[in-house]
Structure to design on (94 residues):
């Protein structure tokens, strides 16, 4: 017996618009679902004016300091980095 799956996620504000975007993605891509097809579907859904319900996810950004100072920046690469090799960035006083 096949497992029943929901057609639209619970956080979609406009299910009819979502289904139109999904149909457009299925028509464009040979393989559905795929990462590219899903990204295209979300892009089209938002372009058509669709929105998602719920809280927004936190996004990364610059570190804020009220008094300015020196910040240690994450090094490139995949391994431990010595502190003296890390790039130090001066933050302006605000």
């Amino acid at each position: 017996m096949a497992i029943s799956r929901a057609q639209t996620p619970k956080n979609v504000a406009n299910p009819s618009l979502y289904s139109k975007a999904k149909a457009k993605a299925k028509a464009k891509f040979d393989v559905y679902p795929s990462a590219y097809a899903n990204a295209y579907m979300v892009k089209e859904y938002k372009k058509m004016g669709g929105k998602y319900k719920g809280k927004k996810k936190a996004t990364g950004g610059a570190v804020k300091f009220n008094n300015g100072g020196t910040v240690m920046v994450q090094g490139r690469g995949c391994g431990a980095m010595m502190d003296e090799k890390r790039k130090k960035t001066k933050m302006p006083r605000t």
Q: What stands out?
A: The helical segments are 15-28, 35-47. Residues 10-58 form one domain. Residues 13 and 52 are 5 Å apart (CA to CA). The two ends are 63 Å apart (CA to CA).
